[in-house]
């Protein structure tokens, strides 16, 4: 999505930056993992295919992708490469042509040592806040593999409710509708978030 290609979102634990070609090699290494392929229902791609996918996602108006960086590591030393700070990604898919206010959200914390530490939670909250304030979204869905209990619990803690189970694809669908109280709660949870300008691979810790 071109809308987010020139901004980064700074939180307490994570920094969200646009997915650029600089990030592809590390992302490609992640997706060689059979565990991540299973959790994300993904097929392994060649490096060339991964670069093509990155370019496609950047251009597609219905996909908003941020790479999740470790904020502490990123801010610790000027000049630290983004690739060395990468821990995962977070995505919004605006694919329901009949309802442009609905976004499907997904998050992946690819680095095992960073799981269970709240980075995924903050990344999702920040992405939802961006979706509400910049993209006009009022409803979110998350489709998660039935066996991915940590992810299901995380979304339930963020007020998502299970609305469907697909036994064929072995996934559950959770949904959150942004009533005014939910919107206010979300904005309070992300009141610390800062939006800063971004240039490909040239974001500087501040």
TrEMBL record:
<keyword id="KW-0012">Acyltransferase</keyword>
<comment type="function">
    <text>N-acetyltransferase that mediates the acetylation of the N-terminal residues of alpha- and beta-tubulin.</text>
</comment>
<dbReference type="InterPro" id="IPR016181">
    <property type="entry name" value="Acyl_CoA_acyltransferase"/>
</dbReference>
<dbReference type="Pfam" id="PF13302">
    <property type="entry name" value="Acetyltransf_3"/>
</dbReference>
<dbReference type="InterPro" id="IPR000182">
    <property type="entry name" value="GNAT_dom"/>
</dbReference>
<feature type="domain" description="N-acetyltransferase">
    <location>
        <begin position="14"/>
        <end position="183"/>
    </location>
</feature>
<keyword id="KW-0808">Transferase</keyword>
<dbReference type="GO" id="GO:0120519">
    <property type="term" value="F:tubulin N-terminal-methionine acetyltransferase activity"/>
</dbReference>
<comment type="similarity">
    <text>Belongs to the acetyltransferase family. GNAT subfamily.</text>
</comment>
<dbReference type="InterPro" id="IPR039135">
    <property type="entry name" value="NAT9-like"/>
</dbReference>
<protein>
    <recommendedName>
        <fullName>Alpha/beta-tubulin-N-acetyltransferase 9</fullName>
        <ecNumber>2.3.1.308</ecNumber>
    </recommendedName>
</protein>
């Amino acid at each position: 999505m071109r809308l987010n290609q020139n901004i980064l979102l700074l939180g307490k634990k994570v920094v969200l930056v646009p997915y650029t070609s600089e990030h592809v090699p590390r992302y490609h290494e992640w997706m060689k993992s059979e565990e991540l392929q299973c959790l994300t229902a993904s097929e392994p791609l060649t490096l060339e295919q991964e670069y093509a996918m990155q370019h496609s996602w950047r251009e597609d108006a219905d996909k908003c992708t941020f790479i999740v960086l470790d904020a502490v590591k990123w801010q610790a030393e000027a000049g630290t490469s983004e690739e060395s700070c990468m821990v995962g990604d977070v995505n919004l898919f605006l694919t329901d042509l009949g309802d442009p206010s609905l976004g499907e959200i997904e998050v992946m914390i690819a680095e095992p040592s960073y799981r269970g530490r709240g980075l995924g939670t903050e990344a999702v909250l920040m992405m939802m806040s961006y979706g509400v304030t910049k993209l006009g979204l009022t409803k979110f869905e998350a489709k998660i593999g039935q066996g991915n209990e940590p992810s299901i619990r995380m979304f339930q803690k963020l007020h998502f409710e299970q609305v469907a189970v697909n036994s064929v694809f072995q996934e559950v669908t959770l949904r959150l509708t942004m009533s005014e109280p939910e919107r206010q709660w979300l904005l309070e949870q992300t009141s610390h978030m800062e939006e800063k300008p971004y240039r490909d691979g040239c974001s500087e810790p501040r």
